[in-house]
Hints:
By secondary structure, the chain is mainly beta. It has one helix and 13 strands, in the order ββββββββββαβββ.
Amino acid sequence: MQRTAFHEKNLIYMLSLDLDLGYGRRGGGSGQRVVPQERVLTSMAHDFTSQEELPDEVSHSVYNALGDERVMGYPAPVGTVDFAQDTIRYLPCQDYAEIVGRLVFRAGGDLIEAEYQGVARPKPFMAIRSGYGIDGELSPVHAKAHIRTRFETGSAKYRWLVQQQCVGYGTLTLTRGEPEFATFDVYAVT
Length: 190
């Protein structure tokens, strides 16, 4: 479903993101995990610039789901992710978690960085806090997620991205409360 409005503002579809955030924990990549004990906080980082061959099931791409070559009259940013980091902070007495993330992707030869903040609402939330899925096992739980994001780039071709305030809608797949996969559709707010 393509969204067209947000709080009386028009939305223009820009791009979609697919990120495999759990690849490092599953035995590959250069993932790092940080879980401080004083508060529940999960962070994953992956550097995909190494020469290692990634398995076919590892997804880390930026693409236009509509197949458009241009967005708002400019070249559509399509490419591969070089670096992705996602942090989830579970707050006491809340039924949501804060998301903070950043990624660097390459569209052609141009580097583009995106930073985002938002919320995820895993259901049931208490199952996430305990580390177990809905069935009491370590099965993945899917959470609706909403983000706002900004882009930075030194590329003249994609400089137009820097001028856009964007919102994203998607899902996080969590195992033991840690992000495994993220997918977002990102829209410019006009």
